[in-house]
Amino acid sequence: MTSLAHPAAAPASVRPSRSAVESVIAELAQEFGPNLLTTAGSTREQHGNTASWLPSEAPDAVVFPQCTADVQKIVRICAAAGVPIIPFGTGTSLEGQINAPFGGICVDTRDMNKVLAVHAEDLDVVVEPGVTRKQLNEYLRDQGLFFPLDPGADAALGGMAATRCSGTNAVRYGTMKDVTLALKVVLANGELMTTGTRAKKSAAGYDLTRLFVGSEGTLGIITELTLKLHGIPEAIAGGICPFPTVEAACNAVIATIQTGIPVARIELLDQLQVKAVNAYSKLDLPEVPLLLVEFHGSEAGVAEQSAHFGEIAQELGGGPFDWATRAEDRTRLWQARHDAYWAAGALRRGTKSVASDVCVPISRLAECVVATQEDIAASNLVAPIVGHVGDGNFHLGLLVDMDDADEVKRAKALLERLVERALAMDGTCTGEHGVGQGKMKYLKAELGAPALAAMAAIKHALDPAGLMNPGKIVPADLVSWT
Amino acid sequence: MTSLAHPAAAPASVRPSRSAVESVIAELAQEFGPNLLTTAGSTREQHGNTASWLPSEAPDAVVFPQCTADVQKIVRICAAAGVPIIPFGTGTSLEGQINAPFGGICVDTRDMNKVLAVHAEDLDVVVEPGVTRKQLNEYLRDQGLFFPLDPGADAALGGMAATRCSGTNAVRYGTMKDVTLALKVVLANGELMTTGTRAKKSAAGYDLTRLFVGSEGTLGIITELTLKLHGIPEAIAGGICPFPTVEAACNAVIATIQTGIPVARIELLDQLQVKAVNAYSKLDLPEVPLLLVEFHGSEAGVAEQSAHFGEIAQELGGGPFDWATRAEDRTRLWQARHDAYWAAGALRRGTKSVASDVCVPISRLAECVVATQEDIAASNLVAPIVGHVGDGNFHLGLLVDMDDADEVKRAKALLERLVERALAMDGTCTGEHGVGQGKMKYLKAELGAPALAAMAAIKHALDPAGLMNPGKIVPADLVSWT
Questions:
Q1: ipTM computed for the complex
Q2: Per-residue pLDDT tens digits for B426-464
Q3: Which residues in chain B are closer than 8 Å to A442, comparing Cβ atoms?
Q4: Under CATH, which number does the domain A235-341 receive?
Q5: In chain A, where the domains are located
Q6: Option in A6, A259, A474 nearest B7 (CB)
Q7: Which of the listed CATH numbers 3.40.462.10, 3.40.50.970, 3.40.50.300, 3.40.50.2300 matches domain B234-435?
């Protein structure tokens, strides 16, 4: 359905000429000076490190803008020379979002890390894209407010929006698409666009905010975010709940969601992941499938919800659900949960840790997780499972010996089947990690050719020269470049 | 910033030739027969009736597709001849969304009214676009499920998604952008696109679902929706709470939201609107500013929340908050709330009822409503105020004597100032009614030229011939048609 796309310029589907790159670097060096523009190999390599098994592809240079106007300058300089632009937050994305397959300039928003305004009375905040989630929450704590989204890493909020990320609280507070009120975005032509206002809802035209959330830098660079906040709950209750099987744990999740208990977090760790977490975080959790559960509300509310969940767990053969409202215990547990990725890696030193996620309708969760575990065993692979199961979303942490060609082959085949299984259950190839380079090949199977053609048409409409983070999300060959 | 748009074909910015229209009508007549294709004046006029003071602009014919394949046929026939296509649900939009300024074929989805699948275990439902919100809730009731969004009218779900509507429950359950999991959309070239899966969240590419929610038929025609459902709450408590002033009522709303009480509905009726409702719905509500409030949850939860809200109201000079859990009382009250539009109209018979909405950050709500009331009085106009104030969203129901040119002029000026006031408070020109024809002129002031250019580029990318509901949202002169 290429008829939807109306190309006007040649895309950066091939690496620009060395002279184009060199002239851009020279111009940027003049603008930004040696402290804010570097071509040092180590810095470039660090910015092309994909935290996955995708080959790293370093940019030609890394620039550190200090403000939105700097980003506009960079984009205009690159656009004039036909050189790709790759935005960079903390580099913790998992599907190669920050790779530079065609070279180009990496725009690291590290120094754009100011909280610009807190509107406590409206429960919103305006931040620069380099502010990280932990930095924001430290900033907010004194005001009794918090920002709920928490990917494992202490990611930058610009990158979190660009990847449409979520985390353990999404079951209650939503994903980045739900908490982002408005963005400022530098477009491919260097102009600065505002996508929304601070109104909590709007029906004013196309939803540009949601279009840019999850666009992974392929449509523009986010330089400011207005985000929803929440009051720190009066009471938080949480704890761990053991189950005899992963299936029983998943069924407890399903029953909890179906019953409408407003759970704030409900996370699955399979037996292997529990072992990994115990070893890595020096804990002594029972080494069986666990749910980590948390409730937010009034004292009476969280007590009622905890008791209700405990009954569900018991009916399904799990429990006891030991819950507490002591912050110290909870903090240690959730830090261990957030360290799951690194804990898994430590299970098998010297291997590559490959994290992949899928998301299915909750009724299929138990079936999907169990079939995946069986597949892991049959494939003779090591891959703990951990997941934001309240949303039907779970992750494999595959540990792959990259020197063992047969193991790499089996691992790739396993991940293919993981996605196929999720799609067959009317699920998605990624719940929160995004597409990047790693999952481009699944979009057509998931949504069909017309959706991919529409994405290509939108990409082309907003980035006619194909310079914004090329080689991600939309395959270049789908756009009818002329 | 027209450089983002890359036109390929001439748009339907002028009415197509009579012969093109006649040939399309002849072809449609052959396909659909006289029962499903009509050019009768009364039907055409009914389909161009805008429920506003915008002049009605009837389509050239109305066709009633029975299925998605019918819609594809219609689009292909119209596209081949360059004739505009205007989708139609129940015709209850308020900003001229269904007008046919360039003529064309109205596609009335009335007969596409089947509930295709209920997945109770996943809390989702798949429906055709002609299913109305009341029809859906009647269908679901036996299963203990409900769909929360409730515009005043018994609107069709396809139109509700197209307009990004919300209603009284949005403060708790979100708007159509939040409850729509996936759409099937017939694109401008007749192809059928799927925008998502039944997974509760996804990071798989551009958010096509959210792009089409709120696109008002200008990018394609929605032919299937997958929507989130909720379990009917264990307990519902609600009631009315009087306040001495609108300001006190708004301040109670602000305090309730800031405290994090999970209110399900919190609606403001100003004194004049209460009078109108009493007269129209035969009620005897106290004729002072009122909040209609409802809580959903467990028995203990709603009691706790009701008590908490009652305390807030009292502190701000309001109350008593008489709440009850009896369904009969609540139903009557909410029907009266939903009839507010018609009740307002009955205040001043023979006038045109012009409903307009804005939405502001909640901290500015009291100030905005009070300033608007003062403006109404100074303008010597009649305009009750009613609103989904938990979101900072409120409506004027202006009653205008259309034969009084001076009054019309004053009314138009009032609405201009209403929007200006909202924008100056970092709000939006429409919280839920959409842009249609009526609010196109405000988009640039709200979001700026780059956002409007981006919308034009997207419009052009997905509808290069400009045939999908032309003359709505994106001004044709912004697209650099060549």
A1: 0.95
A2: 999 999 999 999 999 999 999 999 999 999 999 999 999
A3: 204
A4: 3.30.70.3450
A5: 2-110, 113-231, 235-341
A6: A6
A7: 3.40.462.10
